[in-house]
Amino acid sequence: MTEAARSTVDLFAPDVAAEPYPHYRELRDAGPVVYLEKLDTYALTRYEDVRSALRDWETFTSSEGTAFNPAMNQNVRGVILTAEPPEHGALRSALLERLRLTSVRELTAWFHEQADEMVAPLVERGGFDVVSELARQFPTKLLGELIGFSPELTEKFVIGSNAVFAAMGPMNDKTERALGIIGDVLATIAGMTAADFAPGSMGESLYLAAERGEIPHEHVGKLLWNYAGPAFDTTIQAISNLVWALARDPEQLALLRKEPDLVPGAVEEGLRYEPPIQIWGRFCRKDVSFGDVLLPAGSRVAIVLGAANRDERHYRDPDRFDVQRNARDSLAFGYGMHRCTGASLARLQIEAVLRALAGRVRGIELGESKRQLNHTVRGFETLWVRTT
Ligand code: HEM
Fold it and tell me: How far is CA 232 from CA 146, 227, 229, 357, 365, in A?
């Protein structure tokens, strides 16, 4: 058994996070397990290794937190992300009642209508900021309405969702600010009742069930946060990243315009190519070997989804965005027990936006943009485009 290679790269440093893919390649090539000195963490970056670690939830536990700082690891105790059986199964079934494909499929027509309504005037204008005028607007409006939030509450949860991911990084000013925002959202949740939600909404029905004594009251807040916390920023940036990738490659956009049946595959490829969640944490409970390299018990582990999705050992020409690729097996939604419960809902939303856009534009030109540096979610703060 050999020791892991060592690296001084800091995956959370702004310059690395802005352009992480060359660093990911270096780490993949350095070995199956690489010790990141600056983070005191072992990184898994190859597709097969990441998948096998995610499959083995007992060895690579989330119960010690999925963040890279103790305060957030404490904060996520009791939520589905860090739960283990049997509690995990109970929370997951409760969430999946609302989120499995058969439950969300009925939303398809409404999503498409809303996407058309949102995209048409933007394309008519010929230029817009993808993030603030489309990618953020769409899930904010739809998920906000589904849950039954007022516009003010939706805004609070959208900001809270961004903070959840920022707070997963190492302890620094950004993480501390994010923890403050999360505290504020949790205090709001603690005071919520059925009256805070629109009549007939999902949120109201959850809280009414608690008022009737069918669900313990403290579970309702937890379920709401489990649903809304991971839902917004991920979907927002999946949409932004996909528009960016298409704008950079006019041939791929032309393919979609010619063959709209390629749209679902393009959504998968967008998620593979630029997965919103790039890095996620686990804790390794016992010695494990990858090849002949040891990952020692008691270590923090960085599961680098962004690197696994670009692994040339698994995908041919991985740095190429190719809407005809079958990328359905990408790790953008995770894998195994904690795999994303919101995947169907997210896919439907991204697909609705992409169909609306591809049906209306011949070309998308990139204007000014600014990267979102969130510690976890890769995307943009602003992304200006001109459409023809
Ligand atoms: C493109 C959008 C999305 C991406 C890329 C994404 C990604 C992920 C990933 C990578 C995980 C696995 C975490 C782990 O292994 O510890 C996860 C878990 C989760 N996601 Fe998503 N997600 C997205 C959208 C959503 C939406 C819309 C919802 C809810 C409506 C949601 C709810 C959840 C929940 C509750 C979990 C925890 C599942 C568990 O621990 O069993 N996600 N997501």
Answer: 13, 10, 7, 20, 26
pTM for this one? 0.97
Q: Is the CB of 342 under 6 A from ligand 1?
A: yes
Summarised one tens digit per residue, pLDDT across range 150-169 is 999 999 999 999 999 999 99
pLDDT at 214: 81
Does 92 contact ligand 1 (Cβ within 6 A)?
yes
Q: How far apart are CA 103 and CA 96, in angstroms?
A: 8
Distance CA 275, CA 340 (A): 13
The string of pLDDT tens digits covering residues 113-163 is 999 999 999 999 999 999 999 999 999 999 999 999 999 999 999 999 999
Cα–Cα dist 80/77, whole Å? 9
Q: Which of 272, 300, 340, 354 to mutate to test the pocket of ligand 1 (most atoms within 8 A of CB)?
A: 340
Sign of CA dihedral 12, 16, 21, 25: negative
Any ligand 1 atom below 6 A from CB of 28 = no
243-284, pLDDT tens digit by residue? 999 999 999 999 999 999 999 999 999 999 999 999 999 999
Task: With CA atoms as reference, report the closest residue to 230 among 169, 168, 313, 315.
Answer: 168
Whether ligand 1 lies within 6 angstroms of the CB of 345 is answered as yes
Joined together, the tokens standing for residue 372 give 């979102």
What is the residue with the minimal CA distance to atom 21 of ligand 1? Answer: 340
Cα atoms found within 13 Å of the Cα of residue 254, Cβ hemisphere only: 4
- The answer to whether 344 touches 332, Cβ cutoff 8 Å, is no
Q: Each residue of 283-325: pLDDT tens digit? A: 999 999 999 999 999 999 999 999 999 999 999 999 999 999 9
Q: Is 354 in the pocket of ligand 1 (CB under 6 A)?
A: no
Q: Is 347 in the pocket of ligand 1 (CB under 6 A)?
A: no
Distance CA 352, CA 113 (A): 8
3-state DSSP call for residue 24?
A: helix
Rounded distance between C-alpha atoms, residue 350 and residue 269, angstroms = 12
Question: What is the rounded distance in angstroms from the CA atom of residue 379 to the CA atom of residue 381?
Answer: 7
Tokens of 119: 């995209």
| 378 in contact with ligand 1, CB cutoff 6 A | no
Question: 3 CA distance to ligand 1 centroid (A)?
Answer: 33
- Residue 131 is predicted with a pLDDT of 98
